[in-house]
Q: What sequence folds into this?
């Protein structure tokens, strides 16, 4: 059988001592986590191991001995062999390395607790050994995808077991060879402790800050509960500003909660929402700073007033014109204050823009509805009277066309009405066509704005940043490289982390949003337009409401 | 120990198979495709530029020429980064798994590793490809639900498409290693 030993690169030059790690159950492999140096007392080693085992839930054991003889340390080898009797185990690894050579030598001593299996012939076959070198820090921080949420009892995958073991062994890495204590260990922390004062301080400061923010968010939520009362709810579900506010409030609840994230997905979601919110705010502030410079607000007000007036429409209601003329001196001031809302984020500014467009083009919507209803009535009337002309009738019970014998007066009136409707058709169709085109232009514009909002809401910025800057944190798998070997030594492989592809990152870590997407296919849309049915092309995916 | 052999692919072009024997249970097979030919590059760029010059002659717009240059450059970069495969590697490590790696002409490498516990077998399969029938080497992946079933098939050496004599050599070595370490 081939025996696989996962060896951390930080222990390549460690002083002689004992190997601490874990035998992976069911597979012929072992993960080395740290090396305990001389001198040590075996009783203290056992006590330390049992303490760490309780803290980390990983079944640690002494795997064997490691020997890197330096000057003045000859005679260690015989001492090392005797250690296998102190730490009983079914297998004892004796790894050794000479300075100047790159390969390791390994000897496996089998302590037969159970008698050898007669089916195998009773003799020990010569074990073939592979050394797989891994970067301990990267493997500890990495998350292997696809993520299995359930706690691994029986790991069928060897690599998953290795990643899980290293990630859970945090308590083992607290003691170091430079600490004053009974035991001196070498692991990834020995290369230099990694910590940042800024990170630690912000961690300490974040807890009271989170409490204050959660309290503020709950106050705000009580305030906007007023939007759930029936008449107001109808309007607020149509206005994208209110929808966006509700969505963001939900997010704040998730991010500012004082509970620490337990699983990887929860942590990534929190981080994505937080980073996305920060970027949104900064883009909004940038927009505000651009808008309020060089008099852009008054230019915008002028354009809007011009657009909403009789640029394209000759059939404007007189009341609407006079209303706009009355409002035009105030529009600039209103816009100034509304523009300040862009401080809450670019998505907010875009949703306000979408709502302003919807309000200003409300008359187009009204005309479209009138024209569509008239046209629809006309088309139904024409089709029904055409059937009468042909001597057929629509059977509502059977949902099909049946033949029918009409009286003479029915036929006479029917034909008359048919002729009238037919000659009025071009006029109605033209009105319908014009207003539908205008409505479609407005709808497309709103759709583009909503797509932009959706993109900003759902893009996982933190996950993408992690993938670009610390690509080992999100792992799709591993890759192996054969290290140049010397003849006679076992095989050495270098295990590196294969980062997740960018498209997979986007797919897995997308924040779910109330995205709007087209309701009908192109064919259905054309059919509805032809028949004169009212079209509402964008459908909002409603989130669960209580 | 390295061995280099010359074979042909299904279209008749020469490919190179390189076998590296790291140990009795670890082998690496590299299939190298022929490099980008200078003739093809020259023909492509000349035709694009002649066409652009003809359009310029008709329309008298210099933007046509600069856009033709940009299109040629971008097209060549995308071709060597995304399409042109330099070599494909199969590294089989007994009782650990199989690693497939594709390296492109721009130096980009894309790697996947399949653990031995997921592999059912490595076989040579036949496929109908356009108007001919070709052989290809593939890895059968076990199905987690059904112990006798196959969840998916991963084909190997897809860009270089070697012929049966090359595949048989790789197949024999892989089967020897799998049998030895199972």
A:
């Amino acid at each position: 059988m081939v025996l696989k030993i996962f060896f951390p690169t930080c222990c390549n030059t460690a002083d002689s001592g004992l190997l601490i790690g874990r035998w992976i159950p069911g597979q012929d492999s072992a993960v080395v986590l740290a090396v305990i140096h001389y001198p040590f007392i075996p009783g203290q080693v056992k006590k330390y191991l049992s303490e760490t085992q309780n803290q980390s839930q990983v079944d640690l054991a002494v795997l064997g001995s490691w020997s890197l003889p330096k000057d003045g340390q000859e005679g260690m080898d015989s001492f090392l062999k005797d250690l296998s009797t102190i730490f009983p185990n079914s297998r004892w690894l004796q790894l050794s390395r000479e300075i100047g050579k790159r390969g390791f030598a390994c000897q496996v001593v089998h302590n037969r607790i159970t008698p050898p299996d007669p089916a195998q012939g009773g003799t020990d076959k010569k074990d073939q050994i592979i050394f797989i070198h891994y970067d301990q820090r990267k493997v500890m921080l990495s998350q292997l995808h696809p993520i299995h949420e359930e706690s691994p009892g029986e790991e069928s995958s060897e690599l998953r077991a290795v990643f899980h073991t290293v990630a859970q062994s945090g308590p083992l890495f607290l003691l170091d060879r430079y600490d004053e204590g009974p035991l001196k260990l070498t692991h990834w922390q020995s290369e230099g402790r990694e910590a940042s004062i800024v990170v630690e301080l912000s961690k300490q400061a974040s807890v009271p800050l989170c409490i204050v923010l959660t309290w503020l968010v709950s106050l705000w939520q009580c305030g906007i509960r007023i939007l759930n009362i029936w008449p107001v709810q109808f309007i607020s579900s149509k206005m994208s500003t209110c929808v966006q506010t509700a969505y963001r409030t939900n997010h704040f609840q998730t991010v500012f909660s004082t509970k620490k994230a337990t699983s990887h997905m929860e942590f990534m979601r929190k981080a994505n929402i937080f980073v996305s919110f920060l970027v949104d705010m900064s883009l909004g502030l940038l927009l505000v700073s651009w808008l309020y410079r060089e008099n852009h607000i008054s230019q915008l007000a002028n354009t809007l007033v011009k657009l909403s007036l009789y640029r394209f429409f000759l059939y404007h209601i007189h009341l609407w014109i006079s209303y706009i003329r009355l409002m035009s001196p105030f529009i600039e001031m209103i816009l100034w204050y509304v523009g300040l809302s862009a401080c809450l984020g670019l998505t907010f500014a875009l949703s306000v823009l979408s709502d302003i467009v919807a309000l200003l083009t409300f008359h187009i919507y009204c005309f479209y509805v009138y024209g569509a209803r008239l046209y629809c009535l006309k088309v139904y009337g024409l089709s029904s009277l055409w059937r009468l002309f042909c001597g057929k009738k629509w059977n509502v019970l059977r949902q099909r066309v049946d033949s029918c014998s009409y009286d003479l007066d029915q036929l006479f009136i029917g034909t008359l009405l048919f002729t009238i409707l037919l000659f009025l058709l071009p006029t109605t169709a033209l009105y319908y066509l014009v207003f539908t085109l205008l409505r479609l232009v407005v709808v497309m514009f709103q759709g583009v704005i909503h797509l932009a909002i959706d993109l900003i809401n759902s893009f996982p910025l933190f996950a993408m940043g992690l993938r670009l800057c610390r690509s080992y944190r999100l792992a799709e798998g591993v890759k192996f490289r054969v290290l140049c070997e010397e003849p006679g030594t076992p095989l050495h492989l270098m295990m590196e982390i294969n980062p997740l592809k960018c498209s997979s990152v986007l797919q897995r870590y997308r924040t779910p949003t109330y995205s709007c997407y087209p309701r009908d296919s192109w064919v259905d849309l054309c059919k509805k337009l032809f028949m004169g049915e009212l079209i509402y092309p964008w459908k909002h995916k409603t989130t669960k409401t209580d | 120990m390295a061995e280099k052999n010359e074979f042909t692919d299904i279209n008749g072009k020469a490919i190179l198979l390189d076998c590296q024997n790291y140990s009795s249970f670890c082998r690496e097979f590299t299939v190298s495709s022929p490099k980008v030919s200078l003739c093809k590059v020259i023909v492509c760029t000349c035709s694009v530029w002649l066409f652009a010059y003809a359009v310029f002659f008709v329309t008298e717009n210099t933007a046509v020429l600069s856009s033709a240059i940009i299109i040629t450059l971008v097209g060549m970069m995308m071709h060597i980064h995304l399409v042109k495969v330099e070599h494909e590697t199969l590294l089989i490590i007994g009782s650990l798994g199989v690693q497939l790696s594709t390296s492109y002409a721009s130096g980009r490498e894309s790697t996947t590793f399949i653990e031995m516990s997921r592999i059912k077998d490595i076989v040579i399969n036949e496929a109908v490809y356009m108007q001919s029938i070709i052989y290809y080497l593939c890895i059968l992946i076990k199905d987690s639900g059904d112990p006798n079933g196959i969840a998916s098939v991963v084909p190997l050496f897809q860009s270089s498409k070697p012929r049966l004599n090359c595949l048989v050599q790789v197949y024999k070595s892989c089967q020897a290693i799998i049998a030895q370490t199972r």
